UniProtKB/TrEMBL annotation, chains A, B:
UniProt-recorded name of the protein: Aminotransferase
Cofactor: pyridoxal 5'-phosphate
Oligomer and partners: Homodimer.
UniProt GO molecular function: pyridoxal phosphate binding; transaminase activity
Key words, A-Z: Aminotransferase, Pyridoxal phosphate, Transferase
One BP term from GO: alpha-amino acid metabolic process
Stated family: Belongs to the class-I pyridoxal-phosphate-dependent aminotransferase family.
Segments forming domain Aminotransferase class I/classII large: 40-387
Organism field: Paenibacillus elgii
Length: 396, 396
């Protein structure tokens, strides 16, 4: 059989990084590479009870559900969003298989091959893959610690006439950055006045350190009914558990309606078992107390990682201390290629993701993403000793 | 905000049928329209116990899983397929969100806009939607009671040079037909010798009436290692429950690898809660006894439907008595347009799906699909009285 795969299949070719990370499988390597929440904080008993409550309702819970998702859960998410200053009713909401699917569905209904999408420099790896698989043209906007730089954004809007801007303004993957209020507003204004849709990806917003007030989402800054210029997506993966694969996306009814139809073709609907259980969790579990517990634990881990890095006194190595989320973004001196460093690091018994994977174009080859949520305290110490040895070898 | 949706979004426009069926919501209408399994046979206690067993394993069950799906479940499906004469190892298998997603993922990795896909005349509505959303060109192959007619298939292969043939050879949706062995073999031979990939969609194969031996799948007829010319998909939706949204697709490793990467971009992975529970169900539940129970019950319902239709003595109305599955396909006299009939039927209090929705092109407007699995015995009697009244009105 001579297979004739589609042109877009090329976008899914395996990356060099994935190949290196495969080497870590089955070896005693400490991984700072993944984006995994810490299992220690999964509320397994509460989730188990939630499923019990669902099954007690009888056989009907196992039937096909709405493509839009289980309505009582959408109502609970709507209330949850209200606490964050976001107004979105059930008709403005679609439940998805993780927020990853929200990115994919919006891309399907909004992007044609050749359309331009503006992204942060750097941005989320798996969003790049979705956009490239749609044969979109990706253009990176220059960013600083506060977010997208308005002058560069404006220039690139005028030059490329993009349809979409994709952003992770709160505790970004991979950088851990949180945008300033001013930059959120300027990005919204620029996009709105140029009819550019914003996809605001917010999987980490609840993982806020320091106990302060949350930064408003771009969606909530949008005053048009239902956030006309902004589509917003988030997920339970980081605040409850990833295995439940439940995310949501909100936006204008017209956008959500199109996405719902696309989802109907894609998979009819996501697991309503998981959706019904999450509804029970909202009703019978102290979700916000639980989130507070995760926040505190992750902040401690982040602090340990930063302290360990400081103690190593690495020459010319810089990072941004995140105010939330799961990652620290590290810039090595320019002559260090982190893909080369990764090979040595894996030999020493530690893994990370080289930054190159997070750039749609013009990669900074001296960067890396470190995850601090999944590694326990003792392993974290070992990880940095190993990384230190690898770094000494590359410096030679 | 002036939205600029993608060209393919047009494929998802709401159909006239969907609009009519919306009228049934909240009214006391008996629906023979849906494709719903009967809730009465959902093994809710066994599923609940299966979830309990999963949660007893601890917090780790809530972590992210493999895109390919939970390995022990893939092993169990592999054994399940062996019983059907299908050899497929875990590396030839991807777990999906229902078999609907398998259709979508194969389309993504195999079809470019403008590529030709051959389908049965008629075929599964939601597959047509997926293919059209990819801007594929659909060509219907003429079928009789035994399956695709080889002469027409060969002619259309030579004329259109298709990349893919999509078939539901066993208890088809919408026709309930099961292809003869000869037609399965001739379709395979023709496709194989012309490098045309076959997507064999088999959601209903287990719902076999009459207790005889199952007809071999086209996949199992394919002698090349791993069924090189055939990709096969099925699901737990009809034999356990749809809410668990778990399907699988098997094929050549190369095809499965590409589909896995496409799935990674689409949603990372499907619910591993549901996959782990289904694994426990294989281990601790008499799945095959359960399937036998469903078969018997559905056969009784099918028999009732056919008997009711016979008793009505409708002039010039024909149907094929299905040997399995969930549907009876009815051909009315040529002058009856079933879309018009549906409006009257809904007024009388009964709904069905007009056949037009199941044709990729050249629709037979005098056809309809009736579901017999979801309506209980008393309502079935009422449904045909109502349909009878509607038919008398249209005949006037």
């Amino acid at each position: 059989m001579n297979y004739r795969f589609s042109d877009t299949t090329k976008a899914f070719e395996s990356s060099a990084v994935r190949e290196i990370l495969k080497l870590t499988q089955g070896r005693s390597i400490i991984s700072l590479a993944g984006g995994l929440p810490n299992e220690q904080f999964f509320p397994v008993e509460a989730v188990s009870e939630a499923f019990d409550r669902v099954f007690k309702q009888g056989k009907g819970v196992l039937q096909y559900g709405l493509t839009e998702g289980y309505t009582p859960l959408r109502e609970n998410i709507s209330k949850h969003l209200e606490r964050k200053g976001i107004r979105a009713g059930v008709d403005n909401m679609l439940l998805t298989t993780g927020s990853q699917q929200a990115i994919d569905l919006l891309t399907r209904v909004y992007i044609d091959p050749g359309d331009v999408i503006l992204v942060e420099r750097p941005t989320y790896l798996a969003a790049i893959q979705v956009f490239q698989s749609r044969q979109a043209k990706l253009v990176s906007v220059d960013c600083d610690a506060d977010g997208m730089i308005p002058e560069d954004l404006e220039r690139k809007i005028k030059q490329h006439r993009p349809k979409l801007v994709y952003v992770i303004p709160t505790f970004s993957n991979p950088t851990g950055k949180s945008w300033s209020l001013e930059r959120r507003q300027s990005t919204l204004n620029l996009c709105k006045s140029n009819d550019v849709l914003i996809l605001e990806d917010d999987p980490y917003g609840e993982l806020r350190f320091g106990g302060g007030e949350p930064m408003p989402s771009i969606f909530s800054l949008e005053q048009e009914a239902n956030g006309g210029a902004v589509v917003y997506t988030s997920t339970f993966s980081k605040i409850v558990a990833p295995a439940l694969r439940t995310g949501w996306v909100i936006g204008d009814e017209q956008v959500i309606r199109h996405m719902t139809r696309a989802k109907q073709a894609a998979d009819l609907h996501s697991s309503t078992m998981d959706q019904q259980a999450l509804h029970q969790l909202f009703e019978h579990f102290d979700l916000y107390g639980h989130i507070d517990q995760i926040r505190t634990a992750y902040e401690t881990r982040m602090r340990q990682m930063i302290d360990l890095m400081k103690a190593k006194n690495w020459d010319g190595v810089q990072w941004i201390e995140p105010k939330g989320g799961m990652f620290v973004w590290v810039e090595m001196p320019e002559h260090i290629n982190t893909q080369e460093l990764l090979k040595l690091a894996v030999e020493e018994g530690v893994a990370f993701v080289p930054g190159i994977s997070f750039f749609a174009n013009e990669p900074q080859t001296n960067t890396m993403r470190l995850n601090f949520t999944h590694t326990d305290s003792e392993d974290m110490v070992r990880a940095f000793d190993r990384l230190d040895r690898a770094l000494r070898r590359v410096e030679k």
